Please model this.
Amino acid sequence: MKLPIVAYGDPVLKKVCGPIDESYPELNTLIENMWETMYNASGVGLAAPQVGLPIRLFVVDTGDNDEEERYKKVFINAQIISESGEPWGFNEGCLSIPEIREEVMRKPNIVISYYDENWMKHEDEVSGFSARVIQHEYDHIEGKLFTEKLSLLRKQLLKGKLDKIAKGEVRTDYKMRFPRQYKRR
Model:
């Protein structure tokens, strides 16, 4: 089932998410729904807060590309252990912040600890684009958005666009849920 994606301005996107355990209700169904929602929106990652749930869960699928092998995984209760390398810029976007893309600096290498959907514990070293996608989704479960990594000037220049997104004045090919204070009439 495709879930509505929470839009910029909703408080759930600013919450540090809590861990879950194996008894989390309907977890496998939630994961399936997150995959379907992400693919429907043409995303490469989706975090639980983006579907309104303040839990430490996200999915990543970098797809097939010429530069890297496909990286597809479920991350439960993830913790980034380390980030290394010279930061590099990349034009990032976010399904919760449609129509805005900005260059964000991130380190190219990470070590991350997490559980998969079968509750197997992993510690992976990840580099390049896959590491960037993981860092972006990890930021979501830490209550951070990519726009917070921008300069004060860029943030000021984007304020009007961000306010329009929060008010629902944006068009997407996927279903969105807008903050309560701006419910569409």
In short: The two ends are 25 Å apart (CA to CA).
